[in-house]
């Protein structure tokens, strides 16, 4: 019997993005995205991480990228306020019919509603 090989969910997510032809993601790191940041470091030869100063900028950059290339633009933000900060860029993409994928982190359920931020 062969042992099953496990893959971290964040690494699997990046492999799916790579299979879609996505070469980079825009984002702002946060506590709810630590595993994805680690996966981005492991997969840096396949997907480039472009750190922005604010989630809104990441979403706007992903929208601009999608408009210019026709490929899916990808932006991520942390849970809570980081997610709402993506909305302006997502609305911009929507209005121009640009394909953008927004990824949002989530805090572990054991710390939800305990002033995690």
From TrEMBL:
Pfam families from the UniProt entry: TPP_enzyme_N (PF02776)
Species of origin: Convivina intestini
Source organism superkingdom: Bacteria
InterPro entries: POXB-like, THDP-binding, Thiamin_PyroP_enz_TPP-bd_dom
PANTHER family attached to this UniProt entry: PYRUVATE DEHYDROGENASE [UBIQUINONE] (PTHR42981)
Protein's name according to its UniProt entry: Thiamine pyrophosphate-dependent enzyme
Thiamine pyrophosphate enzyme N-terminal TPP-binding domain location: 11-110
A GO MF term: thiamine pyrophosphate binding
């Amino acid at each position: 019997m062969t042992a099953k090989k496990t893959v971290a969910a964040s690494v699997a997510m990046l492999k799916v993005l790579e299979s879609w032809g996505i070469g980079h993601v825009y984002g702002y790191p946060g506590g709810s995205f630590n595993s994805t940041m680690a996966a981005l470091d492991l997969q840096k030869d396949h997907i480039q991480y472009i750190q922005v100063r604010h989630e809104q900028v990441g979403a706007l950059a992903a929208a601009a990228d999608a408009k210019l290339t026709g490929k899916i633009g990808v932006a991520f933000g942390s849970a809570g306020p980081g997610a709402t900060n993506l909305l302006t860029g997502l609305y911009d993409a929507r209005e121009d019919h640009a394909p953008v994928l927004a990824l949002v982190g989530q805090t572990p359920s054991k710390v939800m509603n305990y002033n995690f931020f």
